C-alpha cells in the first residue's frame, strides 16, 4: 500500500461526519472517496471534508480504485450488505458498531474477509482510547488488587418519535444495539469472554427496548452489571472494582478524559486526554494494522466481535427483541 492510508467513507450521516472530522486529525490518513445514495449528497459531503472523489452509489465506491479501507457508517441493518460489497471490491473494512444485526450476519462478513485475506474490524472506538489503556495499566499494576466486578451504564433521554431510527425496528432501533453494546464490549475487554448473561427490559410502543439491564458472568471469574436507556440521562460511568479498591472511568466512560483510582490510601485522578474527537485512535489503529500487514486488530479481534454479537442475540431472545433481519 501507499505511505498514506487512503480512506473512503460509505454513508454521509451523523456518525460518518464524526469519522470524517477525525480523519483530519489522523496522521497519515487521506479521504480518498465518499459515497452516498445520491451524487449530490456525496458531493456536498466531499466538498466539506475534502474528499478526492465522490460517488453517487455505494457500489461505485466499492468498485473504485485507489482506496485501501472503507469506513461503513450506514444504519445497522445495512452493515452486512455494505461491508460485503466493500470486501468484494477488494477493500479493507472498518464497520461501525453494532457490527451487524445478529451473529449470523457477522459470520458472513468475517468469512468473506478471511477468504479474501482483507482487513476487517468493528469500529468500537472505546477499545483504543487512552482511558481504557490507563485502566488496564492500573489493573496490571495490582493497585486495586484482584478484579472481581465491573459496573457500567449508558443512557440519555432520546426522541420518542416512532419513525426515528432509535425507535424504528426497521432501522435497528432500541437501546441494546445502540447503547448497551458499549458497556457489553468494554466489560468483556476487561473481564474476558461472557460465560452467562441475564437481561431484562422495558419495551417501547414500537417493539424495541427503551431500557435494558443485564448481568454477566465472565470466563475470568468476574461479574459485570450493566444497563442502557433511551429514556434516562444516566451518569454513563464505568467502575472496575477489585479487592483493594476501584478505578472509575469518568463521564462519559466511552470517551473518558480522566480516570479516578480509589483505595484505602485515598483517591487520585489521572488525566487521559484523547486526540481530536476520539475516533482518531481507532483510525490510527486501522492504519497501523494495514501498514503491518495485519488482517485484524488485536485490540478488537474478529472472534471477539462474533462472540459479542452472539451475546447480544442471547439477550434479545431473553427480552423478546426481534428485527426483520432475524427472519
Question: Shape, please?
Answer: globular
Cα-to-Cα separation, first versus last residue: 40 Å
Structural class label: alpha/beta
Radius of gyration: 20 Å
- SSE sequence, one letter per element: EHEHEHEHEHEHEHEEEEEEEHH
Instruction: Describe the strand arrangement of the main beta sheet, using strand numbers.
Output: 8-9-10-7-11-12-13-14
Number of DSSP strand runs: 14
> What's the pLDDT, averaged over the residues?
97
- Extract low-pLDDT stretches: none
The proportion of residues in beta strands is 25-35%
Q: Could you give a short account of the major beta sheet?
A: 8 strands, mixed
SS element count, helices: 9
Helix proportion range: 25-40%
What's the arrangement of secondary structure elements?
Elements: E1 5-10, H1 14-24, E2 29-35, H2 39-49, E3 54-55, H3 58-63, E4 69-72, H4 79-88, E5 92-96, H5 103-116, E6 120-123, H6 130-141, E7 147-155, H7 175-191, E8 194-203, E9 209-218, E10 223-229, E11 238-242, E12 245-249, E13 258-263, E14 266-271, H8 280-291, H9 302-319
Parallel strand pairs: 1-2, 1-4, 2-3, 4-5, 5-6, 7-10
Antiparallel strand pairs: 7-11, 8-9, 9-10, 11-12, 12-13, 13-14
Helix pairs in contact: 4-5, 5-9
Amino acid at each position: 500500500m501507499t505511505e498514506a492510508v487512503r480512506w473512503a467513507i460509505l454513508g454521509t450521516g451523523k456518525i460518518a461526519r464524526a469519522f470524517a472530522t477525525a480523519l483530519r486529525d489522523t496522521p497519515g490518513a487521506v479521504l480518498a472517496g465518499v459515497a452516498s445514495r445520491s451524487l449530490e449528497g456525496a458531493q456536498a459531503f466531499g466538498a466539506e471534508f475534502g474528499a478526492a472523489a465522490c460517488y453517487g452509489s455505494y457500489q461505485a465506491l466499492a468498485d473504485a480504485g485507489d482506496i485501501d479501507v472503507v469506513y461503513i457508517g450506514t444504519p445497522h441493518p445495512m452493515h452486512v450488505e455494505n461491508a460485503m460489497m466493500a470486501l468484494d471490491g477488494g477493500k479493507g473494512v472498518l464497520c461501525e458498531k453494532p457490527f451487524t444485526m445478529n451473529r449470523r450476519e457477522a459470520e458472513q462478513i468475517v468469512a468473506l474477509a478471511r477468504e479474501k485475506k482483507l482487513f476487517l474490524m468493528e469500529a468500537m472506538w472505546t477499545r483504543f482510547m487512552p482511558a481504557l489503556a490507563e485502566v488496564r495499566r492500573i489493573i496490571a499494576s495490582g493497585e486495586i488488587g484482584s478484579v472481581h466486578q465491573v459496573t457500567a451504564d449508558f443512557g440519555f433521554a432520546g426522541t420518542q418519535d416512532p419513525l426515528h431510527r432509535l425507535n424504528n425496528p426497521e432501522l435497528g432501533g432500541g437501546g441494546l444495539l445502540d447503547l448497551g453494546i458499549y458497556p457489553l464490549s468494554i466489560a468483556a475487554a476487561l473481564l474476558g469472554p461472557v460465560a452467562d448473561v441475564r437481561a431484562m427490559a422495558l419495551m417501547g410502543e414500537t417493539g424495541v427496548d427503551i431500557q435494558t439491564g443485564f448481568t454477566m458472568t465472565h470466563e475470568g471469574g468476574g461479574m459485570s452489571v450493566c444497563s442502557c436507556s433511551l429514556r434516562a440521562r444516566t451518569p454513563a460511568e464505568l467502575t472496575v472494582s477489585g479487592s483493594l479498591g476501584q478505578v472509575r472511568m469518568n463521564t462519559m466512560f466511552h470517551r473518558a478524559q480522566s480516570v479516578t483510582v480509589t483505595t484505602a490510601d485515598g483517591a487520585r485522578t489521572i488525566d487521559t486526554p484523547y486526540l481530536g474527537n476520539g475516533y482518531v485512535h481507532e483510525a490510527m489503529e486501522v492504519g497501523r494494522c494495514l501498514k503491518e500487514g495485519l488482517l485484524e486488530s488485536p485490540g478488537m479481534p474478529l472472534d471477539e466481535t462474533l462472540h459479542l454479537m452472539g451475546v447480544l442475540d442471547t439477550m434479545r431472545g431473553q427480552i423478546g427483541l426481534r428485527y426483520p433481519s432475524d427472519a
